[in-house]
Structure formats: C-alpha cells, structure tokens
Design goal:
The protein contains 13 helices and eight strands. The protein is α/β, with parallel strands linked by helices and 360 residues long. The strands form two sheets. It has a six-stranded mixed β-sheet.
Length: 360
C-alpha cells in the first residue's frame, strides 16, 4: 500500500517524471530510497530486465486465455524484438504503473540478481506447467507474422497499445485492413495525466500520426474508443462500463489467474472498488458497436521542431472514415454491457467473432 500512499500524497507533481541526478525531487525522507535517479534503456541491465518482463507477460496472457478458453490453441503472441531501440526517451517512470515498478526502485545489485533469479524460476515453472517450448520463452518475432500474413486481405486489427507494430503490419502485408479498432486518444482531455498526451499516442507519436494518415488516405474505417469512454471523471461522474470488483470476479470466474491479478492491481493502485478495463471495452466494440454513439473525427499532429509529440483528435465537419466513441453516459447506461450480460454471453460473442475471423 505504500505505493498508493505515495501517489495520494505526491500526486502527479513528482510520480510520472524521470528522476535526474541534477534535479532530485523533494519527498519525505522515508521515501527517498524510492526516488533515486532512474536508469534508462541505454543501460544493458534495464534492457535485460525489460525482456524478462516480456517473457513473463507472454506466460500470463497465455495462462489467462487458456483458462478462459481451454479449447483455443490456434493463436500466437508476437512482439518486435527491436521495439526497445525505438524508444528515444522514457516519458514517465515505471513507478506510476503498479505492475512494473519493482525493477527501478532499487539499483542494489544483490536484490536485482535475486529478483532476476525469481523471475527466471517463475518462467521455468510456468513453461513446464503449460507444456511450452523451454528454448523459446519470449513471444514470436513479429516478422514471422508479416511473412505468414503476406497475402492476407481484410485484416481487422484490435489495438490496445501504441501503434508501432500495427503500422509495420499494414506496411508489410497486402491490402488495407477491412476495419480497425483502437483504444486511443481523447477529445475531452480530462481523464489523462495533466498536461500529457494519451499513453498510446505518447509512446510513439510518429507511428500514431503515420498510421492515422494512412487510414484516412486509404479510406479505411476505424473505430476509436477514447479514455473518457473507459474511465469516469470522478465518483460523481462514473463510467457505467467500468465493472465493480465484485462484478469482475463473476466475469473472470473461469480464470483463477485473472481473479488473483485484479485484486492485486486494485490494492496497489488504491482503486479498491473498480477495475478500468480499457482494452476489454475496446475489444467488445468488435461485436457490440451499439454500446456507444460515434462521431467522425479528424486528427492533427502537434510538432516540436520536426518531431511529432502528440496527436489531437477533434470532431470533423467533413467526411471521415475515423469515428470516435462519445462518452454519452445516459446512452451508455441503457446499453450497459457488464451489467446486462453474463460472462457466458460475453464469451460466446467473442468466440463467434474469433470463428468469423478464421473464415475471413
């Protein structure tokens, strides 16, 4: 809970920013050990630790999928091994994310080695339990996906992170996507960190700009779910699609892993009553576009010199193939997804989409 206490007291004045030796933050003495200068990806140790995190993430994703859908084996998890080299400078600290902060809290080598050993032990145990190839703990190289899908047309990407890899995908495969779904951006600018772009834009604004331009130029339909459609403004203005923790237990009843992970995340972030299921809500739009009203939008790149630093999305008065969900909560509440559907109905909808995707 110390992480939540720091967030509550320090807020966004200190927590997000990288800590530099020439400008240490002013924090209570008992917390100073958590605010040492940050190592970056130029440090080979940080790169090694980041790759370990990727290996762990792959196993957690596979475990959750196979618990929820034990008969589904026909999928693969991809990544770009070169993606770390594309991050010029971190725009916020790991300490702001409850799941990944431990690597950067302490540079004590003994503790770091012990943590690596623990992670490697976890990876080995999980790979044995799941019957996975022990020589390949990392996700599959994304270039294998490009090669496999070289002649595939009418793809339907569902994006929950920066647009780096999906831009590569459409550049390396044949034909434009049939439709794109993405958790991206904001029009209200009141749910993100103050003064900062949306995370999925900020991490690679150049790719975001290039992708949106290509989608617009090729007249490809894109449905964008912004932050304000997945997260309420405050307790007086909550988002009806954010499931309460008691409801989330029912929705994830088939997955013991998810049932353990969500309470852990909630405790560390101090969000004890709700779970912000950003990407889940976005994926649900694939089969339930009616849960939101949609408005056509245009995008504008914000520049610092020649570099793109942010993408602003605004309602368009001209024809557009990019549509953004509107946070009309009175409409949303009547279409309530999590409170109106059982987990069985949700899983059937997603399974039907998966089968449809195979056929196409």
């Amino acid at each position: 809970m110390i992480f939540f206490e720091m967030r509550k007291k320090l807020g966004f004045k200190i927590m997000p920013d990288q800590i530099r030796r020439d400008n240490p933050p002013q924090v209570p003495e008992e917390w100073e050990k958590f605010f040492k200068p940050d190592a970056t990806l130029s440090d080979s140790k940080v790169t090694m630790d980041t790759r370990l995190c990727v290996h762990v993430s792959k196993l957690r994703i596979k475990e959750c999928i196979e618990e929820q859908f034990p008969d589904r084996k026909d999928y693969e998890i991809f990544w770009d091994p070169n993606s770390l080299s594309k991050i010029k400078e971190s725009d916020m600290r790991h300490t702001l994310d409850a799941a990944d902060y431990a690597f950067n809290f302490d540079d004590n080598e003994r503790k770091r080695k012990a943590l690596r050993a623990l992670i490697k032990q976890y990876i080995a145990r999980k790979m044995g339990e799941m019957g996975l190839n022990s020589s390949k703990p990392e996700p599959t190289d994304i270039n294998d996906l490009f090669e496999a899908n070289d002649k595939v047309k009418n793809a339907r990407p569902i994006i929950g992170r920066p647009l780096t890899e999906v831009l590569q995908y459409i550049a390396n495969t044949e034909g434009p996507p049939r439709i794109v779904y993405a958790m991206l951006g904001t029009r209200t600018n009141d749910r993100n960190m103050p003064g900062r772009p949306h995370f999925n834009v900020a991490k690679d604004a150049e790719s975001a700009n290039a992708f949106l331009k290509k989608i617009f130029d090729e007249r490809t339909q894109m449905l964008v779910v912004p932050t304000e459609c997945c997260k309420g403004k405050d307790e007086k203005d909550p988002c009806p699609y954010v499931p309460e923790r008691c409801r989330y237990k029912e929705l994830s009843e088939k997955s013991p892993s998810m049932s353990r992970i969500v309470p852990w995340w909630s405790e560390e972030t101090g969000q004890e009553t709700h779970y912000h299921a950003f990407d889940w809500i976005t994926a649900t739009v694939v089969t339930r576009q009616d849960i939101f009203k949609w408005v056509p939008v245009k995008h504008k790149a914000c520049l610092s010199g020649k570099s793109v630093t942010n993408i602003k999305l605004a309602k368009s008065t001209q024809p557009s193939t990019i549509f953004m969900a509107k946070p009309d909560y009175r409409y949303v509440d009547r279409k309530s997804l999590f409170y109106g559907w059982s987990w069985r109905e949700l899983s059937q909808e997603m399974e039907a989409y998966a089968l449809e995707s195979e056929d196409s």
